[in-house]
Amino acid sequence: MDATIQFLTQHGTIMLFLIVLAEQVGLPIPALPMLIAAGALVGAGQMGFWSAVGTAILASLLADQLWFELGRRQGRQVLGWLCRISFEPMSCVRRAEEFFARHGIHSLMIAKFIPGLNTIAPPLAGIMGLRMTQYLLYNGIGTILWAASGIGLGIVFSNQLDQALAMVTKLGPTVALAFLGLVLGYVVYKALHRYRVERLVPRLAARQLVEKIAAGENPVIIDLRPHDAREDVPGIPSSLALSLDELLATQHKLPRDRDVVLYCACPRDATSVHVAWKLREAGFTRVWPLAGGVEAWHTMLRESGQAARASYIHTAPA
Question: Fewest CB atoms within 10 Å of the CB: 147, 194, 205, 290?
Answer without folding.
Answer: 205
